[in-house]
Amino acid sequence: MKQSLVKIRVHTPFTFTHLNYEVEKFAVGVHSVAPEVAENWFIQEYAEILDDGQPDNAGAPAEVLAQIADLQKQLAEEKSKVADLTTERDERDQLIAEHVATIGKCDDTIADLQKQLAAALTEGAKGGKK
Questions:
Q1: 3-state secondary structure string, the chain?
Q2: What is the pLDDT of residues 75-129, one digit of tens each?
């Protein structure tokens, strides 16, 4: 069985002698070591433990999948809202176009009536003579 390693950050270089008298030099930086090495009092004088070798996200895949499912549901709801609002906007645009056309016809009618009024006033000013 493979032993999990622990990451340590060495802040001061040092040489460590293991229980089996194996000598290991540690330079400044991050190193992966066995948990019993990381917990040694001598190592802790020159380094700090960055993790305990256990993944922080041991149960995370299920949580992440649940979050993804929830976000996908929210996305579908938002897409539905966008589709509804787009339809509503298109209906309003159509209604506005119809009102603009009606206003244009009313403007034409007003212009014709103003011409008729001007002609009638001009004719009345001449005493009804053409």
A1: CCCCCEEEEECCCEEEECCCCCEEEECCEEEEECHHHHCCHHHHHHEEECCCCCCCCCCHHHHHHHHHHHHHHHHHHHHHHHHHHHHHHHHHHHHHHHHHHHHHHHHHHHHHHHHHHHHHHHHHHCCCCC
A2: 999 999 999 999 999 999 999 999 999 999 999 999 999 999 999 998 887 776 6
